[in-house]
Amino acid sequence: MDQKILNKRIEEKTQVKKSQIIFQAISFKLDNNIYAMDVMNIVEIIFAHKIYKVPNTDTRLLGVLNLRGNILPVYSLKTILGMEDSVADSKKIEIQEEDKFIIMIRKEKDTFGILIDAIYKNLAADEDNYRTGTFIEKWSKNSIFKGVILENSLEILIVNVESLLKYIVTLK
Amino acid sequence: MPEFSEELIKDFLDEAFELLDSLEKNLLVLEKNQGDSKSINEIFRCAHTIKGGAGTVGYPEIQELTHIMEDVLDMVRKKTILLKFEDISVLLHCRDELEKMLTSRQKGQTYIDKSTENVKQEIRAIKARGPAPAVPAAAQPAAKNAMSEKSAQKLIEESGLNLSDISILTKADLSLLRSLISAGVTHYDLSLISDLINQSHNVYILKYNFNTTYEMKEVSSFQIYALLNDISEIIKINPALDELEKAFYPEVLFIVSTDKNEKAIRDKTNLTDMIETISILKMTPETVKSLDQMTEQKAPSKPAEVKKELAVQGQEGGVKEPAGDEVQKRNIATLRVESWKIDELLNLLGEIVIIKAAFNQLDIDFDTAGNDIKSILREFLNGVMKLNLSGEGDVVKEKNSVLLNSLNKLFSSFDIYSESLQKINRILTSLQENVMNMRMVPIQMVFSRFPRLIRDMADRMNKKVNLVIEGVETEIDKGMVDDIFDPLIHILRNSIDHGIESPEERLKSGKPEVGKMILKANHEGDSIAIELRDDGRGIDIDALKKKALESGYINNDMANKLSQKELLGLIFIPGLSTAKQVTDISGRGVGMDVVKRKIEEIGGSVGVSTTRGKGTRIVIRLPLTLAIIQGLLVLVHKMNYVIPVASVEETVIIKVGDLKEINGKLTFELRGKFIPVMSLEKYFYQVDLPEDREGKLFCIVSKFGENLVGILVSEVLGEQDIVIKSLNTKLIKSPGISAATIIGNGDIGYIIETSQIISQNFKSAN
């Protein structure tokens, strides 16, 4: 989705709220769970097409895709979070996930994608609904999350892109 | 201060950095050959141009330092002082300071450091050391000196100035007279002047340096002209009035005749905001006479030429310089283009090359389909004829001929399409070459920094080294410039530190005191070879062996088996250093392994050979370009892979049954010689070789070091231009794959680094 339009929509939606907005996020679905991510790190969201497996690499690295001439890695957030067992099929050469999406993320010089099932909605983390707290901080040192947004009855974990990058760099 | 456009400042900075390089280069030439007037002129020009530019954009600290440098350089140019080794060092420090200042300015800061003051002190000290006794070679400038000294004396007597001003006056006079000569003063002018003097008129040479930052600077010279016209008769102006109308000249020379004295002129024209300095010299019969002689010496100088020079030199105003060469050089039309623009162009071109591949595939498809259609149609038409349908025969015939016609048209269109495609291919190839060429820069860009570094390093190590650089015009891909700098510096360091002996030691072993290092670049086929040779003590292979044994890299058995050459290869193993002591320059045992790795990362190789006591030779081979390579497109387990043609010796088709297992290793007999083979299907996908002994396999023979190795692939698709798309190797860590490409249909193909997969494969097999 076009970033500008997205930002504008988020702006419109959040204007009514009075409390200070900390950051804006996009939430997405992995199976029935919902997670979110700060929009600042998101370059674009694309339909998943062909993902080419890279031989002799970790199964959490799904492979690479051709995004307008750039060849970029795509990871499976489900496997990273242990929601899905990684099936080591070394003989596979490509993955077709037609009805899924890939969120392209850029952190400084590194650009990579994560495969998600669906986009849920846009969110704004403000002082009212955003929680970090000592427990999350402590816990998130070892995880890829940095906080939680309370949205109605949902608790949406926010992915910390920095930690995610740190984590995927360690993968083989 | 007026605000200058960023563009202007950027231009100034760009030029200044280039000038600094030239300054350094020429200082080092000057160091070797004091009499090299071309170098000193160049150095002077550099300092002067930087000064002028700094003045224009308003960087006083740069202006000040270059000004002091200029004073000393001027003395050198006039051969009134000779530079010692230390003096060159001081000037080099000045250069470094200037670089720091410029870098700070680039970031929008102002560089302030006490080191600047130190350097200024040092350079003032050189200046204060003053003129050495005139050497015979410098007879002519010395004569000028004496002449102006004389007139200075006269002036002092007349104006009653105190003695401390003598040196200033001398310099000013000299420069005035020189300006006058460059201004193209003629015999006619001089005779007029002497006539006027004889008629007891006062004749003055006036030099006005205008404030270049003054808002209305363009009118400065006219204001002065008007004022002088009031009190005197103007004999000559340089540049001429019509020139002054066209452009602003920061320095204007007047010759006037008046009955007023110097002070009156000064008072009348002293417009402080537009004038920086006024220099005044009263002409005497003596000065006219010597001027007459001086003009005679430079007789063939045509006024037109002088004007041209002035225009080019701009700020230079009058000071004469053999600038002809420089002017010529600058006239070669060059365009400064930011490098990312070329990279962008190359990216786009890369996309076109990919699409071109798709068109080529389409062409082949059309061709086969067309042939099929043709042959089937022929059969079909023949069949229709035979049917001889009653009554409708004519209609069928007519329709058949229409069908035939349009198909023929279609086929000829295909032919035209094919031809056009060939044309596009040709154009694209040359376009590609041209853009690639744009990325090529002379290796001088890398080498130019070495003389200085070597000089300082050798100085620190108390060694004497003469670095000879050859083949600076050899062109390399711009992308490699940064990548090869560190490895080269490392090798050079090693060479000075461990290779070249101390002067005493060299003399003892019957070598010349000064060590020799040759750094040479040239093209070899489609690669670039950079060679560094020194005449030092060479590499101690025995020590290397001992060290390798101690650290457990090799055992005794291996040590005895290894050839000298293989032992020498040990220097590329991390952590092995034979240096007896660690110095701040080298010897920490991290080194050659890093050099090798870095060079291999950009697709190059490093070779070393040595003769004990005689010296060492290190050769680095680099690919010509980084962006597009010739690759062999192959299939491995239905996935596209590219093997760079550079690492393919030959391709052979073999049967599974031809492979033999020797000592558990797969081998294949190639012309009577067994070569080890590896299967890419096995390596990448853990797929075993087909059981069928008659099954066809493609074996790509590649060189690994000195040995041949066979690489088995499922299919060879053909040779292609491959646009390299680098992979983020921080995230994608598949041994042997560090780049990929996009082939005709948009699919991704991985580019294989053969040396890496071969070593990886056989390492794991062991």
Anisotropy-based shape of chain A: globular
Q: Which two protein chains have the largest interface (Cβ within 8 Å of the partner's Cβ), and how many residues from each? A: A-B, 27 and 29 residues
Categorize the overall geometry of chain B.
Answer: flat
Structural class of chain B: alpha+beta
Low-confidence stretches of chain A: none
Tell me, rounded to a whole number, the average pLDDT of chain A.
84
Strand proportion of chain A: over 45%
Largest sheet of chain A: 6 strands, mixed
C-alpha-based Rg of chain A, rounded: 16 Å
State the helix count of chain A: 4
The level of helicity of chain A is 10-25%
Distance between the termini of chain A: 32 Å
Largest sheet of chain B: 6 strands, mixed
Counted beta strands of chain B: 23
In which order are the strands of the major sheet of chain B placed?
Answer: 20-12-13-23-22-21
- Portion of residues in beta strands of chain B equals 15-25%
In angstroms, what is the radius of gyration of chain B?
38 Å
Number of strands of chain A: 13
SSE order of chain A, one letter for each helix or strand: HEEEEEEHEEEEEHEEH
Q: Please give the count of helices of chain B.
A: 26
Helices and strands, with pairings:
The complex is a heterodimer of chains A (172) and B (766).
Chain A: H1 3-15, E1 21-30, E2 33-38, E3 42-47, E4 50-52, E5 61-67, E6 70-76, H2 77-80, E7 94-96, E8 101-107, E9 110-116, E10 118-126, E11 130-131, H3 133-140, E12 145-151, E13 154-159, H4 161-169
Parallel strand pairs in A: 2-13, 6-9
Antiparallel strand pairs in A: 1-2, 1-10, 3-8, 4-7, 5-6, 8-9, 11-12, 12-13
Chain B: H1 6-32, H2 37-57, H3 60-77, H4 85-106, H5 114-129, H6 139-159, H7 166-182, H8 187-198, E1 202-210, H9 217-231, E2 233-238, H10 241-246, E3 251-258, H11 262-269, E4 275-282, H12 285-297, H13 303-313, H14 324-330, H15 339-387, H16 393-439, E5 440-442, H17 444-447, H18 450-460, E6 465-470, E7 475-477, H19 478-499, H20 503-508, E8 515-524, E9 527-534, H21 541-550, H22 556-561, H23 564-568, H24 592-601, E10 605-611, E11 615-623, E12 628-636, E13 639-644, E14 650-655, E15 659-662, E16 665-670, E17 673-679, H25 680-685, E18 696-704, E19 707-713, E20 715-723, E21 725-726, E22 737-742, E23 748-752, H26 754-765
Parallel strand pairs in B: 6-8, 13-23, 17-19
Antiparallel strand pairs in B: 1-3, 1-4, 2-3, 5-7, 8-9, 9-11, 10-11, 12-13, 12-20, 14-18, 15-16, 16-17, 18-19, 21-22, 22-23
Helix pairs in contact in B: 1-2, 1-4, 2-3, 3-4, 3-5, 4-5, 6-7, 8-12, 15-16, 18-19, 19-24
